[in-house]
Amino acid sequence: MTTAPEVRDLEGRRIGVPESRQLDLFADMIERRGAVALRCPLVDIRDTPDHAHVQRWLNDVIDHGLDDMIWLTGEGLRRLRDFAERDSPERLTQFIARLDAARTITRGPKPVRELRALKLRSDVAATQPTTQGVIEALADIDLAGHRVGVQLYGEDPNTPLMDFLARKQAHVQAVAPYVYADEAETPQVLDFIARIVAGELDAVAFTSSPQIKRLYKVARANERDEALTAALNGLCVAAVGPLVAERLEAEGVQVTLMPDSNYFMKPLVRTMVAHFNAGSA
Question: Three-state DSSP class for 213?
């Protein structure tokens, strides 16, 4: 059996990969296409240290149920599933049954994928994979008096969503099952910034908002933020989806490309390939 040759359509391109979780997977995708990946692990995702908070939330959901459940990330659903399963298989079964009985609202494709793995459905999809998209999807739905679960991401209290639900007179049961933890040492991040500023890269591909937060935290602490922004605006900046693009634009960085839909790593790589091929045509 003959193996098809690799398509090296990113040959010679130097691409910054500021990733931590799934760093090797993403870097391997672009390296197989001929690119040189400059890796800089910036953040990691960990269970919240406040296990009691999660257990109280699980107890409340299992004991009293929910009318609606808002999933903002697939990561959050995985973490809550694991918390329940670590207690006992029976507790996980009870948790899934309560979720199955609730109307489910999803912010994007990742929580939908995790729900399917548990044989659960998404009833209401956000109009776009952002908090505003969730708010728009729920704008005409009566939530008065409803018990509404909300899975938060990181330590962000998501004030816009909480204020919206308060105006809808919902009884909110919020849970934050994970935190973002800085992983990279500052010298590694400073070296990454220096190489961007020196013009050594053709592109930087961002796959999460915490990457950008960490990058600019280090840049500002070392008075390199203005130089970083200017340098990024002089090369190809790829964003995996709208939330990441919004965070970059908030820092004054113009996003060069983003997948039209399916905000995952593979579509991001394909979008970069199309960009560089068009540029060299």
Answer: helix
- Mention every residue, 6+ apart, whose C-beta is less than 8 A from residue 219: 193, 225, 227, 228
pTM for this one?
0.70
> What are residue 173's DSSP bridge partners?
149
3-state helix, strand, coil in the chain (%, to 5): 50, 15, 35
Torsion angle in degrees (nearest 10) through CA of 137, 141, 146, 150: 0
* 236-239 and 203-206 beta bridge pairing: parallel
Beta-carbon contacts of residue 140 (< 8 Å; ≥ 6 apart): none
Highest mean pLDDT among 22-31, 105-114, 176-185: 105-114
Cβ neighbors of 160 (< 8 A, separation 6 or more) are 131, 132, 135
Return the structure tokens found at 116.
């399917």
pLDDT per position as a tens digit, 32-65: 888 999 988 888 788 999 999 999 999 999 999 9
Please state the separation of Cα 231 from the chain's center in Å: 24
DSSP 95-115: HHHHHHHSEEEESSHHHHHHH
Q: For residue 46, count other CB atoms closer than 10 A to its CB.
A: 12
- Name which of 96, 91, 129, 133 is nearest 209 in CA terms: 129
DSSP string covering 214-265, please? HHHHHHHHTT-HHHHHHHHTTSEEEESSHHHHHHHHHTTPPP-B--SS--SH
Average pLDDT on 137-165 reads 95
pLDDT exceeds cutoff 90 at 180: no
What is the amino acid identity at position 168?
K
In this structure, are residues 33 and 6 in contact, taking their beta carbons and an 8 Å threshold? yes
Virtual CA dihedral for 250, 253, 258, 264, nearest 10 degrees? Answer: -70
